[in-house]
Fold this protein.
Amino acid sequence: MRRIWSHSVKIAFSVTRRFFVTGWIMGCLPSDRCCPVSLTRACGSSLPSRIFSHGRYQPRGRDMLQGILSDENWIAALPSALQSIIETRSIDRSYAVGETIGKAGSPPPGVMQVRSGYVRLHGLQEDGRQTLIAIYSQGNCFAETAVLGRRCLNHTTTALSPTEIRILPAKDFWELCSAYPEIPEALCRKLAAALGRQIANRELKASKRLGQCIGVILQNASNAFGRSYVDGVEITCPISQQDLADHLDVTRQSVQREVSQLKRSGMIARSGRRWMIRDGERLRDFCSA
């Protein structure tokens, strides 16, 4: 079974890489300004060895966060001078808690980046229920695919906390993409990392019990966005039990049962949307069992 999975991962990566690089990015950029050498550097033979090992995605530091949270920041990988150019062309906007940032079906104002706060990405199921896809944290960039594809947004984003968003207008994004090959390079790397994160999340759900999946999400959230206190590590990102249920495609009651068990064991504590990791070592052992 693992051999089949490993082979499927390699095929998926190969097909996705060729599609996005040769078809999507080169098709979006003006042909006389696209840089094949840069694209080769970005997605050449060295990329799979960095991202995959025997068919499994290998996260490095904060390249990938299993679970709900995402902090994919390709702009930070650009040269500092180019980051400054992007900053001068961008517009900063503030959003209150619950305010819609981008609505599904509407055109994107440009490429967006979370400067502070947390953003909820969600979609609608056929029965009208919302499905949590991810929570974007500081630095995360989003809406690039809608801009590149010249299409409307597929999902809705709302502010989970007072949030600052930096918007690079689509017109400026296209001009910079044409002038600086470092941008399509960075986008290639983000696409590869996003694919690996999705695969890792699928493996997580398939190979772990529900309580372990919840534990992994909370553990990674505390590692990335935790604040240490004497009695444990507080997760600063607001995550509800319904968020966990939506993301893991289970009922809220199922999540509540598992959370209650983790609380009784003394590994975590919870008050409202405030989560605290009480015993990180035991939680790690529980998740890896």
